[in-house]
Every structure is written in C-alpha cells, then in structure tokens.
C-alpha cells in the first residue's frame, strides 16, 4: 500500500497563517483607524482656525477700546457741545419749530454717541498681544472642548460655557485660567468615551461632519471681520504706525479743534430768555 500522503499545512485563515500571533485587522477597524487619522488632522486644522478667529476678535476688540478711549470719547464730547449749541439756538427762538427739532435731534445723537463711547477709562487700553504659550493652550482647548465637536446635548451645553470662558481668558491674557479649563474638562466624566469600533466609527464620522461645518462657519465669520470698517481702520492705523504716523492722535487733534470751535460758539450765544 502506498504510504498516505502527509496532510497539507493548515490553510490560511482569513489571510493569516494558523498560529500567527497577530490576528487579522477587521475592515471596520481599518476604517476607524483611517477616520481617526482624518479626524485628528481636521481637528488640528479647526483648532488653528479657531485660534486665528479668536486672535482677530481679540485684536479688533482691543483696537476698538483704544479707538473709543482716544477718539470715541472726543466725538461724544463734540456731540454734547453741538447739542448744547443747538439747544441754545432753540431757546433763543422759542417759536421756531425747525430749531426745536434740530435741538432734539442733536441731543438724541449726543446721547447715542455717549452710550457707544461709554465712560472713558482712567487707564489707557492696551493692545492685544498673545504669547506663544497662550496660543498653544488655546489650540488645545479648541481641539478638546469646542462644542461643535460633540453630539451629546448635555456635553455640548457644558462645552459652550467652557469655550466662552476660554475666549474671555484668552482675550484677557489669563493663561492660568486656560490651563484650569482644559484640566478640569479632561478629568470630567464627559471626557470618557464608549467602547466598540462600530459605535466609535459612527461618533468619529459625526465629529468629522461637525468639524467641517464649524470650519465653514469660522471662514464666513473671518471674512466678515476682515471686511468690517473697524478692521479696515485698524489696517490704516497699523500701516501708518510703521511709517511713524499716529492716525488716532491725528484724529484726536482734529476733533479737539472742532470741540474748541463749538465751545466758543456756545459761549458767544446769549442767555435764553426767561
């Protein structure tokens, strides 16, 4: 009898040899790994865009405070003196409806300008400058906490509150507060993720969609800020400063001259008839 042929080696099972210590990678695991890598890249991009947008908001906010401190307060004073002059003129012409209406309009404009300018602060507002460490911390906060990166309603509400706090901390240069916000959130129960590649893949896909949506929102907001009158004025001021000119001080000097002219006119007006 012919000897029995030896049994063939075990067939490859799901693409690997029997006894192979490394099990095969399932398709859902491969897809999850790919999506996670895509998510990491997208969220890094999103964090950078969030930083740029917040930096622009902070710079414009600081510039607006400087403008109101130096120029806006002068315009409020000018409108106040113009209102007084109009009221003097109306008082001198009690039967003149046009003069009365002009005085009412001037007073309303003065009150509006005063409300916009606010009370002039004693200290000069500072320009906004963020340190590299502040920028790094803000990127981390945006990557971990931004509310548009979660589908859970309660977690989203908490993130919205924390992100608003982070924005204020960044604008005020409060590095310690940024660290505290990030640390507290990362040790919260909401930071614990569920298990299972299938469920995680769904969450990742949703996060990717949310991140793309947020990127579009940031881009639209950035374009609106860059087109704003405030930003255009800041560009002019910055460019002039490079050439040794201070546009804000020039504006202040011009308004001060107008104030002096109107004050003299008021002082020259006769007293109202009693």
Account of the protein in words:
The protein has 8 helices and no strands. The longest helix is centred in the N-terminal third of the chain and has 66 residues, at 27-92. The N and C termini lie far apart (142 Å). Helix 1 (27-92) crosses helix 3 (132-145) and helix 1 runs parallel beside helix 8. The chain has one domain. The radius of gyration is 32 Å and the shape is elongated. Mean pLDDT is 82; it is low at 11-15. By secondary structure, it is mostly helical. The chain has helices at residues 27-92, 97-117, 132-145, 153-171, 175-186, 197-227, 229-242, 247-268.
Itemize the secondary structure elements and their pairings.
Layout: H1 27-92, H2 97-117, H3 132-145, H4 153-171, H5 175-186, H6 197-227, H7 229-242, H8 247-268
Shape: elongated
Helix content: over 70%
Q: Note poorly predicted spans.
A: 11-15
Radius of gyration: 32 Å
Task: Characterize the biggest β-sheet.
Answer: none
Overall domain count: 1
Straight-line distance between termini: 142 Å
Q: How many β-strands, per DSSP?
A: 0
Beta-strand percent range = under 5%
The number of helical runs is: 8
Mean model confidence by pLDDT: 82
Order of helical and strand elements? HHHHHHHH
**What is the structural class?**
mainly alpha
């Amino acid at each position: 009898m012919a000897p029995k042929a030896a049994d063939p080696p075990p067939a490859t099972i799901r693409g690997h040899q029997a006894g192979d210590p490394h099990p095969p990678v399932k398709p859902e695991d491969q897809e999850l790994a790919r999506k996670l890598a895509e998510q990491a890249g997208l969220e890094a991009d999103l964090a950078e865009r969030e930083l740029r947008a917040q930096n622009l908001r902070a710079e414009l906010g600081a510039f607006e405070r400087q403008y109101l401190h130096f120029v806006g307060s002068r315009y409020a004073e000018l409108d106040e003196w113009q209102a007084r002059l109009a009221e003097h003129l109306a008082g001198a012409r009690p039967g003149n409806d046009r003069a009365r209406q002009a005085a009412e309009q001037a007073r309303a404009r003065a009150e509006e300008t005063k409300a916009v300018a606010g009370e002039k602060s004693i200290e000069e507002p500072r320009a906004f400058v963020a340190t590299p460490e502040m920028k790094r911390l803000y990127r981390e906060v945006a990557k971990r906490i931004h509310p548009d990166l979660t589908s859970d309603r309660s977690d989203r509400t908490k993130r919205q509150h924390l992100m608003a706090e982070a924005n204020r901390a960044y604008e005020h240069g409060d590095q310690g507060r940024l660290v505290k916000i990030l640390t507290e959130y990362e040790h919260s129960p909401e930071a614990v993720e569920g298990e299972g590649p299938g469920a995680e893949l769904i969450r990742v896909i949703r996060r990717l969609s949310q991140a793309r949506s947020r990127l579009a929102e940031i881009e639209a907001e950035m374009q609106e800020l860059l087109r704003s009158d405030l930003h255009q004025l800041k560009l002019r001021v910055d460019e002039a400063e490079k050439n040794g000119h201070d546009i804000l001080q020039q504006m202040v000097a011009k308004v001060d001259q107008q104030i002096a002219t109107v004050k003299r006119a008021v002082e020259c007006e006769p007293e109202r008839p009693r």
